[in-house]
């Protein structure tokens, strides 16, 4: 049980004890920083809860075999996540290694996206969701080419098909373009746990659980007040402060800490089978797999340059940046914001810059504040990324003039 979890030793021991003694609570909240392994832990809990044997990593039971390719029908995945960086990364690994393990990795990475469109979650009247579910079904068919249980010869691993899968995943992500959980999905889950597969355990994993509107929250709260037997809710968040108290009070809380640099390197080497090299974090590693990452980073740099440039032509957001913020890049928007944060952090470490003008530090703080607001606007309110960036830019420009006018 939990042999493949890197780090988080005491939490894993506690979970193992609870699951073995049948005392694992029916509703839990796992909180911890981004990329600290919350999702992996949740998936392992789900596997351990439904295993027909001892849940060792190589367990041959039917349930574990389905879990390993993320196809266990007793688990439902809800909530949004950044899918593409991992999908690009696992495709790269598949291309490089062409072996059985990389097939597992690839299938799991892709299904983390596809499972959001399970038939269990399908609302008949939602034509947009239905259309995307159809697309997900097509990808699912292509995935059969990579079934690790069929032990494909390396030379027969079809990289072209993998590329097609990646392209179609990109389309799905752009079409769905949803960051918070629609109330219909909570209702469908409620129906599923009450009326299907009597007696079998059901696990509902909700990622970024803080991103719900009022009606979704209320619908979830209703289920959590009286969860049916054999049902387990695992909520994940990197912002526990944003989960409302009425929901929080129904959940047992587990906190996980940031992994050390060495542990992150172990994840890259052991899970992704890559040289960790210069990478100290998982996000850095996954971002490096995004083909467009260089363009995204360049746009972030341009944003900073334009911000500090007081000549007339940079009063508004440049076309170059606007082009990057088009819908096809929506998944990378958070990487764009993260890069701006990185650049402002670098400026703060430059003592000459800091000492030059007391306004500099205040201005950088303002940048950080607005970046956080943009994160929220994008994730919670589903505001278009171009609009968010433009209003952030204009507000900063106004402030810039306020801070620096006297010294200019
Ligand atoms: Zn098993």
Protein architecture, described:
- This protein is 56% helix and 6% strand.
- With 408 residues, the chain is an alpha/beta fold.
- The chain has 2 domains: 9-271, P-loop containing nucleotide triphosphate hydrolases (Rossmann fold); 292-404.
- Strands 2-3-4-1-5 form a 5-stranded parallel sheet, with helices on both faces.
- Helix 2 (38-50) runs antiparallel to helix 3.
- The chain is globular.
- The N and C termini lie far apart (64 Å).
- The protein binds zinc ion (ZN).
Instruction: Output the CATH class name of the largest domain.
Output: Alpha Beta
CATH topology tier name of the largest domain:
Rossmann fold
The distinct ligands, each listed once, are: zinc ion
Mean pLDDT: 90
Number of helices: 18
The CATH fourth-level homologous superfamily of the largest domain: P-loop containing nucleotide triphosphate hydrolases
H-E string: HEHHEHHHHHEHEHEHHHHHHHH
Instruction: Give the fraction of residues assigned to helices.
Output: 55-70%
Number of strands: 5
Widest sheet, order of strands: 2-3-4-1-5
Mass-distribution shape: globular
First-residue to last-residue Cα separation = 64 Å
What is the strand content?
5-15%
As for the number of domains, it is: 2
Q: Structural class, from helix and strand content?
A: alpha/beta
Contiguous uncertain segments of 5+ residues: none
The radius of gyration computed from the alpha-carbon positions, rounded to a whole number of angstroms, is 23 Å
The major pleated sheet works out as: 5 strands, parallel
Which architecture name of the largest domain does CATH use? 3-Layer(aba) Sandwich
């Amino acid at each position: 049980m939990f042999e493949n979890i890197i780090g988080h030793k005491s939490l894993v021991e506690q979970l193992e004890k609870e699951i073995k003694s049948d005392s694992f609570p029916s509703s839990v909240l796992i909180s911890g920083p981004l990329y600290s392994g919350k999702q992996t832990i949740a998936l392992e809990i789900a596997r351990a809860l439904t295993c027909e044997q001892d849940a060792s990593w190589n367990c041959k039971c039917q349930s574990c075999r389905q879990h390993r390719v993320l196809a266990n029908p007793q688990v439902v995945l809800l909530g949004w996540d950044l899918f593409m960086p991992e999908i690009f990364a696992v495709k790269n690994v598949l291309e490089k290694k062409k072996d059985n393990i990389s097939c597992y990795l690839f299938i799991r990475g892709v299904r983390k996206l596809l499972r959001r469109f399970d038939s269990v979650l399908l609302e008949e009247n939602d034509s947009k969701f239905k259309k995307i579910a159809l697309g997900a079904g097509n990808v699912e068919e292509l995935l059969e080419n990579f079934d690790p249980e069929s032990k494909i010869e390396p030379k027969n691993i079809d990289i072209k098909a993998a590329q097609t899968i990646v392209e179609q995943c990109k389309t799905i992500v752009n079409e769905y373009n949803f960051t918070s959980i629609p109330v219909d999905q909570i209702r469908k889950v409620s129906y599923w746990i009450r009326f299907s597969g009597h007696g079998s355990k059901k696990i509902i994993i909700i990622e970024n659980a803080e991103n719900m509107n009022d009606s979704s929250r209320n619908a979830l709260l209703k289920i959590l007040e009286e969860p049916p037997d054999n049902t387990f809710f695992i909520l994940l968040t990197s912002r526990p402060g944003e989960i409302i108290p009425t929901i929080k009070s129904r959940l047992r809380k587990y906190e996980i800490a940031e992994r050390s640099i060495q542990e992150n390197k172990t994840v890259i080497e052991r899970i992704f089978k890559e040289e960790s090299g210069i990478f100290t974090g998982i996000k850095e590693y996954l971002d490096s797999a995004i083909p467009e990452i260089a363009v995204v980073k360049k746009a972030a740099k341009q944003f900073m340059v334009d911000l500090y440039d007081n000549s007339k032509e940079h009063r508004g957001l440049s076309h170059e940046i606007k082009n990057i913020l088009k819908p096809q890049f929506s998944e990378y928007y958070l990487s764009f914001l993260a890069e701006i944060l990185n650049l402002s952090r670098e400026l703060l470490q430059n003592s000459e810059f800091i000492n030059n003008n007391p306004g500099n530090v205040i201005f950088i703080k303002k940048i950080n504040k607005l970046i956080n607001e943009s994160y929220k606007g994008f994730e919670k309110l589903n505001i278009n990324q171009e609009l968010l960036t433009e209003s952030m830019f204009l507000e900063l420009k106004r402030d810039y003039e306020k801070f620096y006018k006297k010294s200019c």
